[in-house]
Amino acid sequence: MTDIQELIRDLTAFRNERDWNQFHNPKDLALAINIEAGELLELYLWKHAEEANVEKVKEELADILSFALLLADKYKLDVKQIVQDKIKKNGEKYPVDKAKGTAKKYDEL
Amino acid sequence: MTDIQELIRDLTAFRNERDWNQFHNPKDLALAINIEAGELLELYLWKHAEEANVEKVKEELADILSFALLLADKYKLDVKQIVQDKIKKNGEKYPVDKAKGTAKKYDEL
Amino acid sequence: MTDIQELIRDLTAFRNERDWNQFHNPKDLALAINIEAGELLELYLWKHAEEANVEKVKEELADILSFALLLADKYKLDVKQIVQDKIKKNGEKYPVDKAKGTAKKYDEL
Amino acid sequence: MTDIQELIRDLTAFRNERDWNQFHNPKDLALAINIEAGELLELYLWKHAEEANVEKVKEELADILSFALLLADKYKLDVKQIVQDKIKKNGEKYPVDKAKGTAKKYDEL
After folding, report:
1. How far, CA to CA in Å, does D21 sit from each of A17, C83, C101, D17, D73?
2. CB C46 to CB B23 under 8 A?
3. A28 and A8 in one domain?
4. Do D72 and D99 share a domain, yes or no?
5. Which chain A residue has the Cα nearest residue B17?
6. Interface check C101 vs D, CB under 8 A
7. Has keyword Hydrolase (chains A, B, C, D) (predicted)?
8. DSSP conformational letter for C76
9. Same domain, yes or no: B86 and B68
10. Contact A34 D39 (CB under 8 A)
11. Chain C contacts of A31, Cβ < 8 Å?
């Protein structure tokens, strides 16, 4: 069992013990990710990047990852595979010779 | 090397080849997570949960996970540990006997 | 007719001509606001505040305001009133003598 | 003075009394809009559209509108104008004969 599989096992066990699967449709899981992402963002509001409270960042990041893994599990996605597929696709959108050192979007390169 | 470590290695290699570390401060990574979360949410807009395009969900979910892992790496966090710590903490906020079968927030239980 | 009433009239006319009221339940309108907010945020990603494209900011801000006004209209809220009520409430959370010159949240003042 | 101008006057007065203009750069205002949008979204999480607490919706909607108006004011935008311009632009992207009764995005019409 990989560490990602282990986390999904722990998260779904937590959910199932509370009989929460009935609420966890993909749309609401997408809402949950956005809500947690907003809570993470709040830790940086009106601040410089280095001023955020790292203990709180840990918790919000954990929440985002948790709902992302639960959503991946809903669709039975292979998390490692979808991330590696996206890295490959991004490599085509952002070839090193064009994208190096610039933060421009691919359609402005 | 675990799955998570492997993904972080691939993501940071992709970033470093493009010399993008200069842009990837924690605050902007938090912005990136929110932007990608919004793109995921759009796949469910005006729709029932089961109507989303799963191929696109894969990509947006991969983007969210990628920026979340890059942010975790910035702070040198142990991803498995922070998720398991949060599950434990949530277990205290949502004890099974109170939380079972209800979607209420912990402060309304 | 006030400016706000005029905008709500124009927005609901646009919606009704397209028979979109059927999709515009409050939950999906809240999703739409988040999606547009994410698109606004993208205009600042990896950038300093003054580097955003103002023409694009106008459009994203207009989208956010439009869905916010449509949601207010769903509940028949008086937009001017709810904003002024919130200003008053925030005045109690952030009294001038405590909040002046600091970006701290009210629970940290 | 229109009602939008009146709200902007009240919001900037509140801000200035607290000497908060120093924190209110456009990028952080865009963050604030996203954070408040996430708080609005939370009121619908795991729920049907009609189950949200309307009193709380009022407050979150007021927060979103407030930061949107403050951001518009930063760029000295004419709020009524930018919304009406966007309605016109959307009319071209979503002509009635193609868009009527469908929730499809303009690039799928």
Report:
1. 48, 19, 9, 9, 12
2. yes
3. yes
4. no
5. A96
6. yes
7. yes
8. T
9. no
10. no
11. 31
Residues D20 and D51 in one domain: yes
Q: Which residues of B touch C37 (CB under 8 A)?
A: 38
Q: For the purposes of burial, counting CB atoms within 10 Å of the CB of B50, is it exposed (0-12), middle (13-18) or buried (19 or more)?
A: exposed
pLDDT in tens, D50-69: 999 999 999 999 999 999 99
Same domain membership, residue A2 and residue A34:
yes
Same domain, B106 and B57: no
pLDDT in tens, B21-54: 999 999 999 999 999 999 999 999 999 999 999 9
For residue A104, the chain B residues in CB contact (below 8 A) are: none
Instruction: Give the domain extent around A30.
Output: 1-77
CB D39 within 8 A of CB C33: no
A69-96 pLDDT per residue, tens: 999 999 999 999 999 999 999 999 999 9
Assess whether A21 and A65 both reside in one domain.
Answer: yes
- Residues of chain D with Cβ-Cβ distance to C86 below 8 Å are 58-59, 62-63, 66
Q: How many domains does chain B have?
A: 2
pLDDT in tens, A12-55: 999 999 999 999 999 999 999 999 999 999 999 999 999 999 99
Question: In 3-state terms, what secondary structure has residue C18?
Answer: coil
Restricting to A residues 31-60, those with a Cβ less than 8 Å away from any Cβ of C are 31, 34, 45-47
Domain holding A64: CATH number? Answer: 1.10.287.1080
In chain B, which among 55-94 make CB contacts under 8 A with chain A?
57-59, 61-66, 68-69, 71-72, 75, 77, 79-80, 82-87, 89-91, 94
* C-alpha distance across the termini of chain D, in Å: 41
Q: Do D72 and D93 belong to one domain?
A: no
Q: What is the maximum alpha-carbon separation in chain A?
A: 51
**For helices B54-74 and B26-42, angle between their N-to-C axes, nearest 10 degrees:** 170
Q: Which residues of C touch A46 (CB under 8 A)?
A: 103
**CA B85 to CA D74: how far, in whole Å?**
42
